[in-house]
Amino acid sequence: MIMDGEAALALSVGLDEIEFRNNRLSFNIELHDAMKRTGGCTKDADALTITWPANSASYTVSFVSRADALRKVAQLNDTIHFGRSLKVEVANAPPSSCTTPSGTTFVNIRNLPRYVRYGEVHALVRPEGLPLRTLPTGNVSGDVAMLYVYLAMLTSGCSAEDVASVRQSSRNAHISAEEIVTINAPFRTRNHAVGIQNFLNARRLPDDTSFRVILPPAFSYSLTVPTQQFEAQRILWAELCRSISAPPSSKEHCHLEFTSGADKWTICLCISGTNEKAVGAAKVRVEHLAAGETVDGWNSRIDHDAFVERVLSDCGAFVHIHRSQRRIRLYGSPQSVVRARAVVADELARLSAVKVVKHVPQKSVPFLLRQGLSVLRELLGDPNICFDFTNRTLSAPGSDESQHIVRSILEQASLSITVLLKDENQDACPVCFDTVSFPMRLDCGHVYCAACLHHFLVRAVHSDNFPLSCIGDEARCGVPVALPSIMRYLSPYSFSRLLEAAFRAYIVRHPQELRFCRTPDCGQICRVVPQNGPRPVPTQCPACLDIVCPGCNEDVHEGSTCAENRAHNNPAEQDRLVEAWIAGQGGRVKKCPQCGVPVEKTAGCNHIACRCGAHVCWHCTGVFDAGDIYGHMRAAHGSYYAEPAEDPFAGIDHAEQENMLRQAREGRGQRDGGWCIV
User: Fold this and answer.
1) Which residue ranges make up each domain of the chain?
2) What is the model's pTM?
């Protein structure tokens, strides 16, 4: 196993397809995620693999005895000679124009290199066989064929930079032992690879030999499961295959196929598609189904093979017992899993009820009699503990929790560690607030009842109050409980569950640092990276391949900040921002009462014709018919405009003008003999 990704990639490229001990090696880069599931991803999604039959020599060999011919076929077929895997078979008919004694058996030897000579073939089949003649083969050498393919790529429309790497690949092209010439041609982009594939598919080599151009799916993922697990879940796999399938023309198109492994014990599940997000979502669903359902509880004495076969036969569900993880997983249809869960629970209960007998060393007996037995009876119950003084044997319940406590007490006894004795002056137990019985002291100095401390640690699995701290001194102590103290009272199974609960609680309490992936059932954890600029750097989940903004956990929003993107995707916030903007425009922007689109008016008539067809009075935002709106504006507002027409006599004092006019009339009357001329 190689943990460094770059080193693994370099190793796979350098050693892929080399011959080793008459076999050809193949390398695959596998991914391991936090859930201990293993899968492989496509190594070169933008690389073409071009193959064609290699030129080879073939010979017909005659044997006087058919038994000798069959023996030689069995000896040479599929063996490697001259760097090739030979194909040796009995000929269906004798060569034409060949005169041989009756009863002669003919054997064809194919896939020999062209340089092999007659004497070398004779040495291979002697003394029984006699090479007669060679069979016809192609005339184009491997180097010429590789050059032809490379030139075809250059004439397909791609630039030399796009296919520059093909030159080195063509030089390193190899001929496999199976009579196949292979070129691996990586391209800078997948579009170039697709274009070259389409161009080469319609062409042949100069000797009319066809070649195969293979381009792997843009995105693919494979997972291996045991055959028994797959058979138990066959119906569920078929349903999943139908649910994730989409028409090839759809962007969400995915393909899930099942193939048998190299041996009969495994099945390979492969997902492929052109849409990265769709393949990632399907990958998560496949992994979720392949993970099965976990059973609560564990017992290290559970029988693996016999119990697994019994559950599979009686319930139709496959049971996988992970001893390293101390977990039991069930696989099958929902009905079979329910039945299997009941059987597993009964088996765990049976194993827990069976007493386990342990031998106690002589030096540990005094400690056990003085303190150990009392602690065990307090924790596990008086009827469940039995000590035989004569044989120095201790019997206790067979559950993992009970056996872990017994081992802890016996370890204390072997090390002569004295458990704190009861002190009349000590404080009450912080859990039960009663006088401490069978006291246990933590590193902070507070003393608990043995049973209370055990209960406190076991129940912490269902709590989110981490880190675990001492609750002494009326919960004011707060000193974290040391891990060795926790491990002393919890079995490995319970301790691992406690660690998982603490980890989940940490994620929930630090949403500004870490968060779970947004894809359902993904389970991956992504680090939160604040993005304050308009071009946030996207991050990709390694499990479901979903690409998100690490700041807001939403789709990548090129050109806008996280706050702007949230406002854009929140209709209520959008409306609030629009209303605030309109309020700050000094009355020159109003919403159309019919369609709600903001309208800006800087000058002109109060008759607004919106593009939705409404005729709006700008003064009161009323909607009218086109023929009625002007009458409304005259009657209700006295004008068609936002402000009345300018008064040419504005600013003139009319009372003063009337007084001056009256005085003028009086003066003219006196001059005209007292008459007033009107």
Assistant:
1) 1-32, 33-45+217-291, 51-187, 303-353, 357-506, 573-637, 652-678
2) 0.56
